Amino acid sequence: MQSTGFKWLKSKMSVKTALIAAAVLALALSLSLLHVAISQQQSSSQQQPSLNPQPVFPWASSYPVFTAITGSGLAPTSNWNVWGPQTAQCNAWLPFVMEPLAIPDFMTGQLYPILAVNWTWENHYHDLIVYLRRGVYFYWNGTLPNGTHVVIEWPFTAKDVYWTFVDYFKIYGNPYNVSVIILNNYTVDFHFPGLTNVQYAYYTLLPTYIVPWEQYANLTNPASAVIYPPVGTGPFYVCGGSATIIYFCRNPIYWIPGRPLIPKAAYIPGTTDAFVFEMLAEGKAQWGSAGSTGSTPFSKLFTYANPQYYHGMASIGNGSGGQPAVLWINYAQLNYWPWNESWFRLALSLAINRTAVSIYTQFGSPYGGPPTPGDFLPSPMEQEWLNSTVIQLAHEVIQYNPQEARQILIEHGFKIINTTSGPELLFPNGTAFPTITAIDYAGFPDTFGVNVVVGEEWKQNLGINVKVISESLSTLFTYEETGEQPFELMYWLAPGYSPYLIWTAEFVPVQAITVYPNGSYYLNVTYIKTVGTYMYDDPGRWIPPPQFIEDWIKAGETANVTELKKYYNDMAMILIKELPGIPVTFCAWPRYEYEDQYYIGFSTPEYFYTWDVEIWSVGSELMILNIAPRPPGMTEQQEIEYTKEAWNDLLAFLYGKANTATPPSLLDYLKPYQIPVSTTTLTTTTTSTTTSTVTSTTTAVSTVTTTAVSTVTSTVTTTAVSTVTVTKPVISTALIAGIVAVVVVIAIVAAIIALRRR
């Protein structure tokens, strides 16, 4: 601070000035004491972290900083609480900084071990024993509000897992009364005392971001707490920015050797889809997650600017699609003839040209075809869990066959007549079939487009008139909460990592089912008919048959693949027979944009290694770790070979089959191609990592070995950070508050005494 900043000390002070000065002094002293208190809390028993050498690519020094962009609220600045509303509005920073115990693949349900190395079930699925990864540290490097530079290095242990879920259950509830028991520093037990649910453990507990107990322990209201700085175990840490941009720097003690492969990254909260595409098209961002704006293909909003390197994707090009999207029938109001007849719902299904729907709603994306007509499960999940007979039957009910649809209606007494306004459907008594009201979310133009196209198909093929209404999300939620839904059909998505979760979202209101210790259950039909809790919970309020509920309960209580396949096939057959909802298409997901002019390693249609490419997805970390600067002269085929190698090397390390994720064979791909040989000194700093080989319940992708010829050697350097190292501080909020209070009082008293002496 410049000396002019203290000129006020040379003049006479009023009482008011003295008090203000005292308060400022007290604040400064309290921050200093906080820093000293933290710095002095050292744990001598903990092993010190090892530096993670970073590959350096001199030819990439002029590249733009790798930048991601998507629509969200403003970025946090002073409060980085993982549970807070500011993170809910802008959560895209999380995959860069925070990590879960495991990451599930969105379309297959496969779990990749991250902060956990393995997990096993014991006691008839009442105890999930999770073995934690050693040698992991929470990290942050920055300046406190008092101007003190601090480096935080807190070892990750079971204590962090315990306090994470104490907070989590306070915020989101604990429907299965799970208790987290610390068995030792690197082993925890998720104990289910009564009703068990493997799916809840796999896809809710394991993917939850783990927070440091030093910041999150003993919080009365975790959602409202102010947390600063953002401290995580992830590949990057927050090293600057503002409300409109976040800067990330490489974590120098990150636990995956050699990763990440880039030194910096950034995230821009996009205010609108149009702004996102503008930034992408101008080369100011390299990775985006945005849909189209209206009917304009996003290929014309982004990829047209540089077709060689700018790419977009809305579902992959093999037709496997993304999230199942369903027309829910409002059984709360339509539980009467003919809506309560499965043959009527089948006729409606056969009269939908899903190819036309898919083409219209995916807005001509560059990789959007072939179209993706959808049934009750995404194709990868379907192929994994259902037998060929069931799959064939599932596809038959979504075929476009308007002739059969009309024949079904005619066989049941309906008449289809021609009028000046087109075909009209009449009841057997000659009265006109009433207009159907279909609602959707106003924020997604593709959902509106689905209802429009479906309505056109039904009018043309069956003579049914459809009125489309777009509602705000809050209105849709209100409909669910009150049960007063003035509509016949609702079009929405059914996300999930497994058939169990997708069908739970579509057809099983969890809150309406009570399961007793002996395995029997009670289905509250009144609840289903009248009250909803959330938009993803059975908007149609179909009352499932007992067999469906029994299979659903059993599927939640086991991880046995053979048993799960039996339950899922049984449930699928019921859905095919009953058609409680009408599957339409797979939502255009994954939907994202990327440029590979400067950076490579993306999951692409040419090598699609992960579905989690949306920036805010917990699984996007797996792609972030593979991103690397593009070497000069690299061909498209060499880019694909690098991506395969990077992915398989990463998996080998995560599963304990290799001691590094970045072997020399991978770095060979990241050397300039087709340039003269030069003499470059290779400086290598190696980090010894002890990795225990474990047996995982998931299967890694088979390793692909490739050979690349290179002429220039990369240089590997290590930058040591020397400031204050903070390791496992044990300091309570009450103690800090007490210190601050004492300092404030002392400062004020001193100021008053000084004034009296004058």
Can you walk through the features of this model?
The chain has about 750 residues and is of the alpha+beta class. The chain folds into three domains: about 5-40 and about 740-755; about 55-315 and about 590-715, Periplasmic binding protein-like II (D-Maltodextrin-Binding Protein, domain 2, 3-Layer(aba) Sandwich); about 325-585, Dipeptide-binding Protein, domain 3 (Roll), CATH 3.10.105. About 30% of the residues lie in helices and about 20% in strands. The protein contains 24 helices and 29 strands. It has a seven-stranded mixed beta sheet, covered by helices on one side. A five-stranded mixed beta sheet has the order 20-19-21-16-24, with helices on both faces. A hairpin with a 2-residue loop joins strand 17 and strand 18. Helix 19 (about 545-555) packs antiparallel against helix 20 (about 560-580). The longest helix is centred in the N-terminal third of the chain and has 26 residues, at about 15-40. The chain starts with 14 loop residues before the first helix and ends with a helix. The model is unreliable at about 1-45, about 365-370, about 675-735, about 740-745 and about 750-758 (pLDDT under 50).
In short:
The protein has about 750 residues and is of the alpha+beta class.
> Could you state the CATH homologous superfamily of the largest domain?
Periplasmic binding protein-like II
Helix content: 25-40%
N- and C-termini, Cα separation: 28 Å
Unreliably modeled segments: 1-45, 363-369, 676-737, 739-746, 751-758
Helix count, per DSSP?
Answer: 24
Q: What would CATH call the class of the largest domain?
A: Alpha Beta
What is the quaternary state of this protein? single chain
